[in-house]
Design a protein that fits this description.
By secondary structure, the chain is mainly alpha-helical. It has 10 helices and 5 strands, in the order βββααββαααααααα.
Length: 281
């Protein structure tokens, strides 16, 4: 939803609200606001593999960056270009180093401050248990119908900041601990326990193979496969998303003429496109 609003005389007013219909024409330019950046995905972004709304990009991302910058400064004593920031490119969240050369300095400092990072996560989690309860209780008991627009916006910022701070504390302690425990369990299982007919170690784990991660990996694999099919790639680039969706809705059993080129490692794809063909030329 595209919402236009204005602030006048201390009051917010909605000027226009409508579904987003105008998206950038393909091919998109995946350019960073910095000349020589390093873009990556991290633990915080794995939970948001899809494009985010413009409201989240303008309201949420600055708050998240503020919370993380506080952590970098307090734990690692790093500021400015030495730490990554969250940026939005074509609606997707990336962890961005403004200068690629700063990545290894960050990693070296990170490796030597793991203990302080864990301690910070534990300390912040204890503090936030009280803070978040106070904030949530206050807003739960509030009559929202009587709250003025500026106060409501301030409340949204306050609630989101508590949530972002809580998640940052989780990133500092329990989430990396979980990742390391999964790594050690996998190596122990594969080296000393697993027999040839046994399930892989990932069958016993949920963290590193979470649904968002699997969805993003599948989306990347599917995009790479589609890119390798010239006709399909051209069709997807030149056809509006709404038109593709309408075609699929009009003929749910739509199948593609390049079924034989589907990767064998993706049987679920093969089961979706198995029989008849379609010409897209």
């Amino acid at each position: 939803m595209d919402i236009e609003w204005a602030l006048a005389a201390g009051r917010f007013g909605i000027v226009q609200a409508r579904p987003i219909t105008a998206l950038p024409d393909p091919p998109l330019e995946w350019s960073s606001p910095y000349p020589k950046p390093l873009l990556a995905h991290g633990d915080s972004i794995d939970l948001a593999p899809d494009a985010v709304s413009p409201l989240f990009a303008t309201l949420g991302i600055p708050i998240v960056n503020t919370v993380y910058l506080k952590m970098y400064d307090r734990v690692m004593r790093l500021r400015g270009e030495n730490v990554p920031m969250f940026v939005i490119i074509n609606g997707y969240i990336y962890l961005c180093f403004a200068k690629r050369s700063k990545f290894w300095k960050y990693m070296s400092v990170h490796a030597t401050t793991v203990g302080r990072l864990y301690a910070y996560g534990l300390e912040r989690a204890e503090e936030l248990r009280t803070t978040s309860r106070t904030v949530l209780t206050r807003w739960r008991e509030m009559d929202l119908a009587s709250v003025k627009a500026p106060e409501l916006l301030a409340g949204v910022r306050e609630l989101f900041e508590v949530a972002a701070d809580y998640f940052c504390a989780a990133i500092c302690r329990p989430i990396p601990q979980s990742n390391f425990s999964e790594l050690f369990l996998r190596r122990f299982y594969n080296a000393l326990i697993k027999r040839k007919e046994d399930l892989p170690a990932t069958a016993f784990l949920l963290g590193l193979e979470s649904l968002p991660l699997r969805a993003e990996k599948s989306l990347f694999d599917l995009a790479q496969w589609a890119k390798a099919q010239p006709e399909l790639a051209n069709y997807l680039q030149q056809t509006a998303t709404q038109a593709v969706w309408a075609a699929l809705q009009a003929e749910p059993c739509l199948h593609l003429c390049w079924t034989s080129s589907l990767p064998a490692s993706r049987p679920t794809w093969r089961s979706l496109v198995t029989s008849s063909t379609i010409s897209i030329s």
